[in-house]
Amino acid sequence: EAEVAQSPRYKITEKSQAVAFxxxxxxxxxxxxxxxxxxxxxxxxxVQFQDESVVDDSQLPKDRxxxxxxxxxxxxxxxxxxxxxxxxxxLCASSLPKTVGELFFGEGSRxxxx
Amino acid sequence: GENVExxxxxxxxQEGDSAVIKCTYSDSxxxxxxxxxxxxxxxxxxxxxxxSNVGEKKDQRIAVTLNKTAKHFSLHITETQPEDSAVYFCxxxxxxxxxxxxxxxxxxxxxP
Lengths: 114, 112
Known about the structure:
The complex is a heterodimer. By secondary structure, chain A is mainly beta. Chain A contains no helices and eleven strands. Chain A has strands at residues 5-7, 10-13, 19-24, 31-37, 44-50, 53-56, 65-68, 75-79, 88-95, 104-105, 109-113. In chain B, strands 2, 4, 5, 9, 10 and 11 form a six-stranded mixed sheet that branches. Chain B has a five-stranded antiparallel sheet with strand order 1-3-8-7-6, with no helix packed on it. In chain B, strand 7 and strand 8 (72-77) form a beta hairpin.
């Protein structure tokens, strides 16, 4: 069964350092999402792509976060500089475009900022 | 903006009892309402979903109901088992933006 791939699974970094997360969606899924999940809370949408275009990044802290999906397939989420409050699980999900249907989540990348 | 409220935040039931989790949404353009189960340290996984043209959907011990007028939807789990223990998230997806907004989660504990 096809799955969303994410790496790294775990990342420990010191504040002010740069961090990057990678996501490879299920083949054929044009819509890609990055969510942030703080322990004990629901996933919060950071950015949504349709192919290579950003369709929503209203909750992305643009002073330190950036996301790209250059060829409309895999995606990278970057944080620079990392802050203590960025410690969370970063979940990538994908879905078929323009249909009302399931989001498939990756295993997530757990970030700890010291 | 869009908002999804979920209650209760924690729920403890005895094995074999029923569990009900309720959500309300603010965006009237929402047309898709999934429920995800997340076990500790794992990814959220879809357990059931409902579209806005349907009022109720059932899959074995799990059912979801939708009241579009009141902007409410609920998850019902019957004959609960210890393996149902997890965090459950409701979500609402806007038909206008395709944006999926999650509720805050309910920690369900099924006591054997």
